[in-house]
Specification:
The complex is a heterodimer of chains A (about 120) and B (about 250). Chain A has about 120 residues and is an alpha+beta fold. Chain A has four helices and three strands; from the N terminus they run βαβααβα. In chain A, α1 crosses α3 and α3 packs parallel to α4. The mean pLDDT of chain A is about 80. Chain B contains eleven helices and six strands. In chain B, the strands form two sheets. In chain B, strands 1-3 form a two-stranded antiparallel sheet. Classes of the chains: A alpha+beta (about 120), B alpha+beta (about 250). At the A-B interface, β1, α1, β2, α3 and β3 of A face α5, α7, α8, β2 and β4 of B. β2 of chain A pairs parallel with β4 of chain B.
Chain lengths: ~120, ~250
């Protein structure tokens, strides 16, 4: 980043996240923070859901609360949010959501969260 | 996302350095810069880049046209990998049909449906290509482009397409429906002087986004996800010394 700062935070902490958003006043928010490991999601499913689902909701909520309008929020997810149909080629955004493990389910849920915020709060 | 490596500085891992060199080389030659950070961890970025470049060379863009514009795939068909390239590229390239050369500056982020195929390239069996999902128009370039023109949009995409050259004015004039075309995306500047907030900027996707896309940003903020249970690869945040300037609590 040309003129960047880096912070340690927790996307599960809405208040801290909201303060960060207000501080940065971003035009564009990229949300990539996640618990990204399938195996870890078996070990800590609750933490995975908290980070991936609630964390996504918190990011979008922080943006919604922001005093400065945000032009765009990009929520990055994974092909694992789609129902595994055993294809050896890429899944599409029109494919059915699914998830037989906590990680995949959390990402599918995050899709719904993003869609809900997009539908209900996008200006 | 947590990781113990950093993407710049003295502790950069060798293959990331290799990709950064490729990035710079591509920039110098004005060739396409097409990165798939998911591949990054699998050493597959070169394969992706080469594939694109080879396709461009083989088909030969002429008069501003390219294979991306000339292929005519079936949008609804489930395509076997060997046909994926033509269909994927022809169906929607970066949101719409766009010349490869206009994609310079784009950062493609997404899953790999063809990781094994890409790896097979090194065994001379490579046969697949970019994923459909990365080339879908609705959640990538078009959404981002439309969004940067005003409204906040949650983009539940499996990918991000970023171009350092997207401008608000270019977007607004691009198309009546608020979208834009590949040319205007490629030639405009989304970050110029505009602040960007990126969560998960030490992950394998976020690190590339932070390394490539926001260079033109007026200011930026990377927000690390604080691991509830630090992994072995990131036993402490001291592992990313130099990346952390502040703590948001």
């Amino acid at each position: 980043m040309a003129s960047s700062t880096r912070s340690v935070g927790d996307v599960r902490d809405l208040d801290a996240l909201a303060r960060t958003v207000d501080d940065v006043a971003p035009s564009v928010v990229f949300h990539l923070a996640a618990q990204p490991l399938v195996l870890s999601s078996y070990e800590d499913p609750i933490g995975t859901f908290q980070t991936n689902v609630l964390g996504t909701a918190n990011v979008l909520e922080a943006v919604r609360r922001s005093s400065t309008p945000v032009d765009a929020v990009v929520v990055v997810t994974t092909d694992k949010c789609y129902e595994n149909r055993g294809w050896d080629h890429g899944y599409r955004e029109t494919d059915r959501l699914g998830g037989r493990d906590p990680y995949s389910a959390s990402k599918a849920a995050a899709e719904h969260v993003a869609n809900a915020y997009r539908s209900s709060t996008a200006r | 996302m947590a990781a113990s490596w950093c993407w710049r500085g003295p502790r950069i891992q060798p293959f990331y350095a290799q990709y950064l060199r490729q990035l710079e080389a591509r920039r110098r030659t004005s060739a396409i810069r097409c990165f798939r950070p998911y591949h990054l961890v699998h050493m597959e970025v070169p394969a992706t880049i080469d594939l694109v470049l080879e396709r461009r060379t083989a088909s030969g863009p002429a008069d501003g046209c390219s294979p991306l514009q000339t292929a005519s795939p079936s949008p609804s068909a489930d395509l076997p990998p060997e046909k994926h390239w033509t269909a994927s590229v022809g169906r929607r390239a970066y949101g719409v049909a766009a010349p490869v050369e206009s994609a310079a500056g784009f950062l493609l982020m997404g899953h790999s449906g063809h990781a094994a195929d890409a790896r097979g390239r090194y065994g001379r069996t490579y046969r697949s290509s970019l994923d459909d999902v990365e080339l879908d128009s609705r959640c990538a370039a078009r959404s981002l482009a439309a969004a940067t023109g005003g409204p906040a949009v949650g983009c539940s995409a499996a990918h991000v397409i970023v171009d350092p050259g997207l401008s608000r004015s270019a977007n607004r004039s691009a198309s009546p429906d608020g979208g834009t075309d590949g040319h205007s995306i490629a030639r405009s500047r989304p970050w110029n002087g505009r602040p960007v907030l990126l969560t998960g900027h030490t992950g394998f996707k976020g690190s590339w986004l932070s390394a490539v896309a926001p260079r033109d940003a007026g200011r930026g903020r990377g927000l690390l996800q604080q691991a509830s249970r630090p992994s072995r690869r990131c036993s402490s945040w001291r592992a990313v010394d130099g990346l952390v300037d502040s703590v948001s609590r």
